[in-house]
Amino acid sequence: MTTAAPRSTAATTPPAGAVGTAHTRVEGVEKVTGAARYAGEIPFAGLAHGWLAVSTVARGRIRSIDADAVLAMPGVLAVLHHGNAPRLETDYVGMLGVRPDPTCAVFQHDQVPSMGWPVALVVAETSEQAREAAESLVVDYEQLPHDIDFHSGRPDAEGLDGHMPAVTGKGDLEAELAASATVLDAEYTTPEEHHSMMEPHAATARWDGGRLEVFDSNQGATWVVGELARMFSLEPSAVRVRSEHVGGGFGSKGVRAHQVAAVMAATVLRRPVRVVMTRRQMFSLAGYRSPTAQRVRLGADADGRLRALEHRSLSLTSTVHDFVEPGAGHARVMYDADAHHTANQVVRLDMPTPTWMRAPGEAPGSFAMESALDELAVKCGLDPIELRLRNEPERGPVSGLPFSSRNLAACFREGARRFGWAGRDPRPGVRRDGRWLLGTGTAAASFGAGAGPSTAVLTAEADGTFTVRIAAADIGTGARTALTLVAADALGVTTDRVRVRIGDSDFGPAMIAGGSMGTRSWAWAVNTAAAELRERLALGADIPPEGITVRSDTTAAIGALAQKERHSYGAQFAEVAVDVTTGEVRVRRMLGIFAAGRIVNPLTARNQLVGGMVWGISMALHEEAVRDRATGGHYGADLAGYHVATNADVRNVEADWIEDHDPDDPVGIKGIGEIGIVGAAAAVANAVWHATGARHRDLPIRPDRVL
Ligand code: MOS
């Protein structure tokens, strides 16, 4: 056997930078040929299949579960429920600073706090046997009255801090409103919305030589390890979570009932157990976006400067867990006023617990605030872009902090130029194309640009290639490809010499794919490791057969970041056509211009921003989970009943960006995960007003609401 001659990278010529050049997905061929294995399809010898049984009442108590009847069915191995399931530890605060949602800590008591609550796991030799048995399982409930009635003005609404303070306030709101030349007071609502990612939640758990191993579909292996270790009272080092390929997440893929149930069953049966959620189960077990009811009051002086701003947002949470959808957060960063008051409130209902979904807070919050600004602009007789430019703050309106960078005005200027905004006739309802009324609208976008500590392991291999190992999650974003480009640049080599391995908690702790912070956080760690490795190689080190490995940890560097208001910004534009005979709204074209830090891979970045804007179309026109108040359950809990935008809804959607390198990030990245949806629904709604003269303050803008 011969070994490749040791070689030093210092001798190679650095290529023109990989970061900023379009690169197809490094795992693209694997994905389109089916070679990429997802959590629900990895083969295991002796695999057993679990099927969740969920409650058919919205509130109550389990009187009895007739497990014996289904244990006699073909292939059935076990029925886990509150009467026999292992006890879990649930009194802790996890990696993301929150307590576990009891919905995920399954089978610990006989209470049923919402429709679709997990009550049992039936395990069988095949998934068909498990399903047959789970659907035959007779559960007797003592049913109690339930309340799922979400609306504004609930007397039991309360402030809840969540990840940001519930309330902020300065100045005398009523006095400034009274002194304003123009006042707007309007209420906006958004419905219950669901993530609806392609790949359902799935996990396979097995014990392997004293270690628990879980093959899972999630947004962060480190996060899932932390939660499972605590719940099952294990050392984190005794748990390994792997999730190389993930078919979408949108905020929903953290720790959920299926992983916990799979671990329980694998522990009890001492064999690998797989649990996959059905699409229908995802409507109650996977989290969702709470509906919101928002009130916005704005007061402006004669030249459009805001004197008063109030944004109050009500959302719901379950009776078992605290979660807040912080709709009122948008104005805290975007607009200042002499009197500036914002509040997020929740009401506790007999509903499943909502969770983060696609720009949590910002997506519904920007619908209300960016619609309200459009309404105010009309009242003031100002162009809506001009109104926003007149209200550009010098510092964070609530934080008082300087902006790390804020290129919102530049986004509007560039967007207006490319969209053809100049000379727009502000009058509504005056443009016609046959039976269609035409209109254009705009809105601002913003999303936080944070970073979380991560570790990366980087090896210079003896054959001249490099291996990056990081517990990153590529949930469809292109993160793995972006990290390949970042590593290549930092090492000064071509991308074909870099191999990036992700989705394995054994690679060390890393940030989740969430909060638009994934790629930025991981890139920081990869860049740091690469810099150290390059230094070592520059000293002329020969590479031994096992390679040279360095490990980075960005905890200290991120902790040392100066306090600034760190956000990405954008300007959204939409042109709609409204059919006056059917009430149908068509988005003819959309343009988003973003200032979102350095763009690592234009190909996948454009993909992601356009994807977010498509979600905005979807939010504006289609998405709405409808519940039956009598039973607490959904009508049409599937992708036929829950409408998302499809190809026919997406005509001409363009996303682009302006130069906006983050000065404090070693690669210049900010994050693009969520900003694409922010403001997009408002831009569409504002365009519908411009087309028709009718203001739509309730989403979605269904045909029956248009007529
Ligand atoms: Mo995102 S909603 O933080 O996954």
UniProtKB/TrEMBL annotation:
* InterPro entries in the cross-refs: Ald_Oxase/Xan_DH_a/b, Ald_Oxase/Xan_DH_a/b_sf, Ald_Oxase/xanthine_DH-like, AldOxase/xan_DH_MoCoBD1, AldOxase/xan_DH_MoCoBD2, AldOxase/xan_DH_Mopterin-bd_sf
| PANTHER family per UniProt | ALDEHYDE OXIDASE 1-RELATED (PTHR11908:SF132), XANTHINE DEHYDROGENASE (PTHR11908)
Q: Which residues form the Aldehyde oxidase/xanthine dehydrogenase a/b hammerhead domain?
A: 33-145
In its UniProt entry, what is this protein called? Xanthine dehydrogenase family protein molybdopterin-binding subunit
Origin organism is Streptomyces anandii
Q: Which Pfam families match?
A: Ald_Xan_dh_C, MoCoBD_1, MoCoBD_2
Q: Which SMART domains match?
A: Ald_Xan_dh_C (SM01008)
UniProt KW keywords: Molybdenum, Oxidoreductase
Gene3D superfamilies named among the record's database cross-references: Aldehyde oxidase/xanthine dehydrogenase, a/b hammerhead (3.90.1170.50), Aldehyde oxidase/xanthine dehydrogenase, molybdopterin binding domain (3.30.365.10)
